[in-house]
Design a protein that fits this description.
It is a single chain. The chain has 152 residues and is an alpha/beta fold. The protein has a single domain, classed as Rossmann fold (3-Layer(aba) Sandwich), CATH 3.40.50. 30% of the residues lie in helices and 25% in strands. A hairpin with a 2-residue loop joins strand 5 and strand 6. Helix 1 crosses helix 2 and helix 3 packs across helix 4. The radius of gyration is 14 Å and the shape is globular.
Length: 152
């Protein structure tokens, strides 16, 4: 299984939280990351998005169908995110567009085995793979890419 955690791009301040839209910079960040992801994604992948406006706008940059899930909304737990994605047993690739601090907690848990408060930059992706080698299950970090590394 591949799991791609994608933090929403830069959003405007405001209330209600779930109605905040991307800024112009955020729109550019989402487009850059979508441009980086598109040629690397497998043909069939599942795209799961928080109901927040900023995550839906970020995902729209991929120009693909997505499902909206309350399990990944702002304030979601790392456990609900992992359950929603089916990690590590699902087949194929799941791209999840969500929020801090839960995305950082998932990244920490997958890489260190302990829930920590890791930071995932706005608009960035963390790409994990789960595989079995010599009868041992492994989590592999394939890529960490943020918009500022590719031009935003």
């Amino acid at each position: 299984m591949d799991l791609i955690l994608w933090r929403h791009a830069e959003a405007e301040d405001g209330f209600p939280d779930e109605g905040r839209a991307l800024t112009e910079r955020g729109i550019r960040q989402a487009a850059l990351m979508a441009g980086w992801l598109k040629p690397r994604l497998p043909k069939d992948y599942k795209l799961i998005v928080s109901p927040a406006k900023r995550t839906r706008q970020t995902a729209q940059a991929l120009e693909a169908r997505f499902s909206v899930s309350n399990a990944v909304r702002p304030g979601a737990s790392y456990a609900s995110i992992l359950a929603e994605t089916g990690w590590p047993d699902a087949k194929g690739c799941v791209v999840l567009v969500g929020h801090q601090p839960a995305l950082g907690q998932v990244a920490s848990l997958l890489l260190s085995g302990v829930e920590g408060e890791w930071s995932v930059k706005k608009g960035a992706i963390w790409w994990f793979s789960n595989r079995t080698r010599r009868d041992e299950t492994q989590t592999v970090l394939r890529a960490v890419v943020s918009p500022d590394l590719i031009g935003a």
